[in-house]
Model the fold of this input.
Amino acid sequence: MAQHEFEDLAVAAVFKSYPADMRARLLALRQLVFDTAATVIGPDSLVETLKWGTPSYHTRAKSGTPIHLGPAREAGEYGLFVHCQTSLIDEFREERPAAFRYSGTRALLFGPDDVPKKKHIKDFITAALTYHQRKNRVR
Done:
Protein backbone atom coordinates (compact mmCIF):
# COMPACT_ATOMS: atom_id res chain seq x y z
CA MET A 1 0.00 0.00 0.00
CA ALA A 2 1.04 3.61 -0.44
CA GLN A 3 2.81 5.38 2.40
CA HIS A 4 0.18 6.77 4.78
CA GLU A 5 0.35 10.56 4.94
CA PHE A 6 0.67 12.37 8.26
CA GLU A 7 -2.41 14.30 9.31
CA ASP A 8 -0.88 15.50 12.58
CA LEU A 9 2.28 17.57 12.05
CA ALA A 10 3.31 17.03 15.68
CA VAL A 11 3.45 13.27 15.03
CA ALA A 12 5.48 13.87 11.87
CA ALA A 13 7.89 16.04 13.85
CA VAL A 14 8.45 13.28 16.41
CA PHE A 15 9.29 10.79 13.66
CA LYS A 16 11.62 13.36 12.09
CA SER A 17 13.43 13.75 15.43
CA TYR A 18 14.51 10.09 15.51
CA PRO A 19 17.90 9.07 14.09
CA ALA A 20 17.56 8.13 10.40
CA ASP A 21 17.98 4.36 10.82
CA MET A 22 15.50 4.16 13.69
CA ARG A 23 13.10 6.52 11.90
CA ALA A 24 13.06 4.22 8.85
CA ARG A 25 12.27 1.16 11.00
CA LEU A 26 9.58 2.98 12.99
CA LEU A 27 8.01 4.35 9.81
CA ALA A 28 7.88 0.81 8.44
CA LEU A 29 6.08 -0.30 11.64
CA ARG A 30 3.75 2.69 11.33
CA GLN A 31 2.86 1.70 7.77
CA LEU A 32 2.22 -1.86 8.92
CA VAL A 33 -0.15 -0.54 11.60
CA PHE A 34 -2.11 1.46 9.00
CA ASP A 35 -2.14 -1.36 6.43
CA THR A 36 -3.32 -3.87 9.03
CA ALA A 37 -5.96 -1.50 10.37
CA ALA A 38 -7.32 -0.90 6.86
CA THR A 39 -7.98 -4.61 6.41
CA VAL A 40 -9.07 -5.43 9.98
CA ILE A 41 -11.19 -2.45 11.06
CA GLY A 42 -11.57 -0.56 7.79
CA PRO A 43 -9.99 2.49 6.20
CA ASP A 44 -10.13 5.72 8.20
CA SER A 45 -10.92 3.80 11.40
CA LEU A 46 -7.54 4.47 12.99
CA VAL A 47 -6.53 7.62 14.87
CA GLU A 48 -2.88 8.68 15.03
CA THR A 49 -1.88 11.05 17.79
CA LEU A 50 0.85 11.70 20.35
CA LYS A 51 0.57 10.17 23.81
CA TRP A 52 3.39 10.62 26.29
CA GLY A 53 5.48 12.08 23.47
CA THR A 54 5.31 9.02 21.23
CA PRO A 55 3.14 8.15 18.22
CA SER A 56 0.00 6.37 19.35
CA TYR A 57 -2.69 4.55 17.36
CA HIS A 58 -6.20 3.70 18.50
CA THR A 59 -9.45 2.72 16.85
CA ARG A 60 -12.24 5.26 16.53
CA ALA A 61 -14.70 2.63 17.82
CA LYS A 62 -12.49 1.86 20.87
CA SER A 63 -12.50 -1.82 19.84
CA GLY A 64 -8.81 -2.19 20.60
CA THR A 65 -6.06 -1.12 22.93
CA PRO A 66 -3.75 1.71 21.85
CA ILE A 67 -0.48 0.87 20.15
CA HIS A 68 2.57 3.09 20.69
CA LEU A 69 5.74 3.15 18.59
CA GLY A 70 9.05 4.52 19.74
CA PRO A 71 12.56 4.05 21.04
CA ALA A 72 13.18 1.55 23.82
CA ARG A 73 15.50 1.97 26.80
CA GLU A 74 18.54 0.31 25.24
CA ALA A 75 20.41 2.41 22.68
CA GLY A 76 19.31 1.61 19.14
CA GLU A 77 16.33 -0.49 20.22
CA TYR A 78 12.76 0.40 19.38
CA GLY A 79 9.45 -1.14 20.19
CA LEU A 80 5.79 -1.63 19.68
CA PHE A 81 4.11 -0.92 23.02
CA VAL A 82 0.64 -1.69 24.40
CA HIS A 83 -1.07 -1.03 27.72
CA CYS A 84 0.62 -3.12 30.42
CA GLN A 85 -2.71 -4.28 31.89
CA THR A 86 -3.73 -6.09 28.72
CA SER A 87 -2.95 -9.76 28.27
CA LEU A 88 -1.58 -9.28 24.74
CA ILE A 89 2.12 -9.67 25.48
CA ASP A 90 1.53 -12.71 27.70
CA GLU A 91 -0.69 -14.31 25.02
CA PHE A 92 1.91 -13.83 22.30
CA ARG A 93 4.78 -14.90 24.57
CA GLU A 94 2.91 -18.14 25.25
CA GLU A 95 1.85 -18.76 21.62
CA ARG A 96 5.06 -17.57 19.93
CA PRO A 97 7.90 -17.53 22.45
CA ALA A 98 10.64 -17.10 19.84
CA ALA A 99 8.82 -14.66 17.54
CA PHE A 100 9.78 -11.51 19.46
CA ARG A 101 11.83 -10.15 22.30
CA TYR A 102 9.25 -9.31 24.94
CA SER A 103 9.52 -6.67 27.64
CA GLY A 104 7.30 -7.48 30.61
CA THR A 105 3.64 -7.05 29.72
CA ARG A 106 4.30 -3.88 27.79
CA ALA A 107 6.31 -4.30 24.58
CA LEU A 108 7.72 -6.15 21.64
CA LEU A 109 11.32 -4.99 21.28
CA PHE A 110 13.50 -4.86 18.18
CA GLY A 111 17.18 -4.14 17.75
CA PRO A 112 18.86 -2.46 14.79
CA ASP A 113 19.82 -5.82 13.28
CA ASP A 114 16.49 -7.58 13.89
CA VAL A 115 14.37 -8.57 10.91
CA PRO A 116 11.01 -9.40 12.48
CA LYS A 117 8.52 -11.38 10.44
CA LYS A 118 5.76 -9.14 9.12
CA LYS A 119 3.15 -11.85 9.60
CA HIS A 120 3.88 -12.06 13.33
CA ILE A 121 3.78 -8.28 13.69
CA LYS A 122 0.53 -8.04 11.71
CA ASP A 123 -1.00 -10.74 13.91
CA PHE A 124 0.01 -8.76 17.00
CA ILE A 125 -1.36 -5.49 15.57
CA THR A 126 -4.62 -7.25 14.68
CA ALA A 127 -4.91 -8.59 18.23
CA ALA A 128 -4.28 -5.10 19.64
CA LEU A 129 -6.78 -3.40 17.32
CA THR A 130 -9.50 -5.89 18.29
CA TYR A 131 -8.49 -6.48 21.91
CA HIS A 132 -11.61 -5.09 23.66
CA GLN A 133 -13.93 -6.47 21.02
CA ARG A 134 -12.46 -9.98 21.48
CA LYS A 135 -12.37 -9.77 25.28
CA ASN A 136 -16.00 -8.62 25.45
CA ARG A 137 -17.06 -11.63 23.35
CA VAL A 138 -15.35 -14.01 25.78
CA ARG A 139 -17.23 -12.68 28.81
Residues 76 and 110 are 9 Å apart (CA to CA). The longest helix spans residues 20-40. The mean pLDDT is 91. The chain has five helices and six strands.
